[in-house]
Design brief:
The structure holds 2 protein chains of 2 kinds. By secondary structure, chain A is mostly helical. Chain A contains 10 helices and no strands. Helices cover 81% and strands 0% of the residues of chain A. By secondary structure, chain B is α/β, with parallel strands linked by helices. Classes of the chains: A mainly alpha, B alpha/beta. The complex binds adenosine-5'-triphosphate and magnesium ion (MG).
Chain lengths: 252, 295
């Protein structure tokens, strides 16, 4: 980012954002849309501040589920990808099955998951893990097998072991690919955790949204939704920052 | 080819156990006949009747046909010939990367697979690939890292090798910050850190300017003389072949065969003055004739 571009890259979105908020506020006050459909931004902020402790606690629950799920899903995805790289027969047998599983609409089978896992954190963690697993599997596998033929031959000429190949070549080569998956999972795991709460739960942002919805507290719903949005963005931002740090060495 | 004599001789699996190999080998056999046989094993690079056929589905390419050569230990040979005549393939047979369809290849009397397992050769590849996320010194020290040497030894040897190829000061640079020629020199340094008995080089000087190339030629020869290493080098340059060889192996394509082996009799202690020697021009002319001969 050159210095002369930096202000423009920040200022333009900010100006558009403010204009949008003003238009939104005006629309909410004009009476053209029902209060039950759309709350104004000021009203949403006020609702958020009023419910901050309730929102904070429930957001924490949802975030915890998302993080645990994402961690499990990503680690499992990476481990399976490592197995795929080393055992071709395993990959050929399992990869088609994995793709098939990915097509399962996990939200649609939530009721079954709740029957199996109860209505605590477990099914939410499962859904978040499920949605993080496949992007990591596919991306990590691509990265791990993305080894230049000459590099492979060089390591072979050194009689390198499979684990040396993995740690010294495959893993570093796969890092950019893994970050792609992590960024995907930063957003999807929060959504997964929240959506899984809709059906059966006593805590979490998803539960709050349903609870507010039942009593038509529109501004409160929006405040919960926007909070979840901000958390997702935060997770994404942290991941992207880690990515920049990790990759700054190899791509000057 | 490999009898009990070899399994005895290679009991110690590490290269440094082999330093006094010939003496150990000869003393190990009480009976005269075995001792004579052991002494006559090819200690350099040896190939007999190598065929390489690449298959892809029903389509097959004969890359090498009946290639035989014998490069004594400590001597220098170059492979030269038109593009696609199988020079890299022959080199890669010795590196155990290509398995020959038929024939025997030996390095110091052992198969390429054993030579690789014991790390007695070093390879410089045609592309001089580096790991892009590693600094130059970490790239150059990679082979030693794989062998499990301690970090201080690794770096000391890598720095030494980098200085030798004129890359002092670029230790911390990334491969992407170097020119093609500099990367090629780093790849040469990477091979030299291993202190190999056999140096297998695939067009290692291709991207270098004339002056650097000249300097590196004689630097390489000096190292080879000091270490007694055996050289097999692929080149497209006739003068390079003459400067660097005791034997120039001329190959012809379709299928790749060895058409002629020209002995270059410049001995040891070669200097850049070599180019002024009248024999140098004669060898060049002889080589050019051999290359232009229809197969
Ligand atoms: N892995 C492979 N699979 C199939 N064919 C191959 C393979 N490697 C080489 N060949 C074929 O073998 C022949 C010899 O290739 P090789 O790379 O040894 O040539 P070369 O003499 O090194 O050429 P150059 O001077 O261009 O590097 C070519 O016809 C090539 O197409
Ligand atoms: Mg080649």
């Amino acid at each position: 980012m050159t210095p002369s571009l930096a202000p423009r890259r920040v200022i333009l979105p900010v100006i558009y954002g403010i204009a949008l908020l003003i238009a939104w506020e005006a629309l909410a006050h004009s009476g053209a849309v029902s209060r039950l459909v759309l709350a104004g931004p000021l009203e949403i902020v006020v609702a958020g501040v009023r419910n901050w402790s309730e929102l904070g606690f429930n957001a924490g629950v949802t975030l915890a589920q998302a993080l645990i799920g994402a961690a499990i899903g990503n680690v499992a995805g990476l481990l399976v990808a490592i197995c795929f790289v080393h055992w071709g027969f395993f990959r050929r047998a399992v990869f088609p099955l994995a793709i098939l599983c990915e097509a399962i609409p996990v939200v649609a089978i939530l009721p079954v998951l709740i029957l199996w896992l109860g209505n605590g954190m477990a099914p939410k963690i499962f859904v978040a893990a499920f949605l993080s697993f496949f992007p990591m599997l596919v991306n990590a596998y691509r990265g791990l097998s993305n080894v230049d033929e000459e590099v492979r031959e060089l390591l072979y000429s050194y009689s390198a072991t499979a684990s040396q190949m993995l740690w010294k070549v495959r893993m570093p080569a796969a890092v950019p690919f893994m970050f792609t998956a992590l960024k995907l999972s930063a957003c999807s795991s929060m959504i997964a955790s929240l959506v899984a709460e809709w059906l059966a739960s006593e805590r979490g942002l998803g539960f709050l949204v349903v609870y507010y919805g039942q009593s038509y507290r529109v501004a409160d719903i929006w405040s919960a939704a926007i909070l979840s949005c901000l958390i997702s963005l935060g997770l994404y931002g942290i991941t992207a920052a880690c990515e920049r740090r990790a990759l700054s060495r190899s791509s000057p | 080819m490999r009898g009990p004599a070899l399994s005895l001789a290679f009991e110690g699996r590490r290269p440094w156990h082999w330093m006094g190999l010939d003496i150990v080998m000869l003393n190990a056999f009480p009976d005269e006949a075995t001792r004579v046989r052991a002494a006559t094993l090819p200690a350099g690079l040896y190939a007999d009747g190598i065929d390489v056929v690449f298959r892809r589905g029903s389509h097959s390419v004969q890359a090498l046909k009946d290639c035989s050569l014998d490069i004594p230990r400590g001597s220098w040979a170059t492979l030269i010939g038109a593009s696609g005549c199988g020079k890299s393939t022959l080199l890669r047979v010795f590196a155990d990367i290509v398995k020959p369809t038929a024939g025997t290849a030996l390095l110091h009397g052992v198969s390429p697979a054993e030579a690789r397992a014991n790390r007695i050769y070093a390879l410089v590849q045609q592309g001089s690939t580096m790991l892009p996320w590693r600094s130059i010194i970490d790239n150059v020290a990679l082979g030693l890292e794989i062998s499990g040497l301690p970090k201080s030894t690794r770096y000391a040897r890598a720095e030494e090798a980098l200085a030798l190829v004129g890359l002092k000061g670029f230790e911390k640079s990334l491969p992407s910050e170097l020119s093609g020629g500099m990367r090629q020199r780093a790849a040469i340094a990477r091979a030299l850190t291993l202190r190999p008995r056999f140096l297998l080089m695939d067009e290692p000087f291709g991207a270098l300017d004339e002056i650097t190339r000249d300097r590196l030629h004689f630097e390489l020869l000096r190292i080879l003389e000091e270490t007694g290493a055996t050289l097999l080098l692929v080149t497209h340059s006739i003068s390079e072949a003459v400067i660097l060889s005791d034997k120039v192996i001329v190959m012809t394509p379709r299928p790749g065969r060895i058409s002629e082996i020209i002995e270059v009799d410049f001995g040891r202690g070669r200097t850049p003055d070599l180019r002024g020697d009248p024999r140098f021009v004669q060898y060049e002319a002889q080589l050019r004739r051999a290359l232009h001969q229809p197969a």
